[in-house]
Amino acid sequence: MKVHLSRPDINENDIKAVIEVLKTPNLSLGPKIPEFEKKLAKYIGRKYAIAVTSGTSGLYLCLKALGIGADDEVITTPFTFIATTNSIMMVDAKPVFVDIDPVSLNIDPIKIEAKITSKTKAIMPVVVFGNPSGMDVVWEIAKKHNLPVIEDSCEGLGAEINGKKVGNFSTMSNFAFYPNKQMTTGEGGMILTDDEKLADICQSLRNQGRGKGGGWLAHDRMGYNFRMSDINAALGVSQLDRIEEFVAKRQNVASFYQQLLADENRIIVPKAPENCRMSWFVFVIRLKEPYAAKRNAILNAMLNEGIQVSNYFPPVTQQSFMVEKFGFKDGDFPVSDSVCKCTIALPFHNNLSKEDAQLVCETLKKCLDNA
Length: 371
What we know:
Layout: H1 12-22, H2 32-44, E1 48-52, H3 55-65, E2 73-76, H4 82-90, E3 94-97, E4 120-124, H5 135-144, E5 150-152, E6 160-161, E7 164-165, E8 172-176, E9 189-193, H6 196-206, H7 230-240, H8 243-260, E10 267-268, E11 276-277, E12 283-287, H9 295-304, H10 320-326, H11 334-340, E13 343-346, H12 354-370
Parallel strand pairs: 2-3, 2-4, 5-8
Antiparallel strand pairs: 1-9, 6-7, 6-11, 8-9, 10-12, 12-13
Helix pairs in contact: 1-7, 2-7, 3-4, 3-6, 8-12
């Protein structure tokens, strides 16, 4: 590939941090875990943080800690990575989908209340592509109905609404650190909350159900091995030192694309919402008709030119196992289903050069011309 879709931003301090842990006997359950937890909790502005193996395991533990299970319903968005939906189904609850806002691509707050029933036990909005728009409104709706919010902030570290960081508009929030995210621990996630009881439950659940002050073979509840290692946590501590640099770098790359594509009337170019700081996770354009109908051909043409692109996101509700279980069909969620057919995620990472952005845009325009 000439230009890759994503790349982590690793420097010598990151490498040194990992090597230093490898020189100690504390590869797991060591001091780097609480250091990373305290540092991220302070950055977001929440009381408690629980490091876990992934964003998916974090969402799952949030649901378990809130006691959500069989016959319960969780309201969420159909326009997301599959992990959001999987976590709900993993606790035997039912995902209840609410269509998205056509501008922000986040769950449409106006449509939420119509889906609340006696079985609704939580709302799980997603900070899609690092855009925090509407998270504050969802939180107010949830409080009105006395419902907890699990904020899937896996794509939104560093985003803000009116100066308040994403991760605060909820009962519990969750971040992820896969290598394509704003910062990385290789694999890993983090739960945040201000509720000490929920934090204690998550701490126990991630560590085989062990309780506070109990021995290695004392288990208060059924639990899991969802512990982050000190190796991953050390990388997280080092990376978090540069999170503001990372957010700024990604804003610069987004600005490159916005400038280079400003006059391209065949596509919709994403912009940051008012009163928000967007923490760009990916840069996803949308094709207008008649080009939207040729989206897959355009994707393949760009790949053949050496530009790694993707379709963010295929509809969750159209995944084969979802259709089999729930009988969803195209058009059930008109906005989401329509958006899913016209998206192209362009190469995007902290250190994408303006020259590479130029090449991506030139290739995109050529592929549109030839479509």
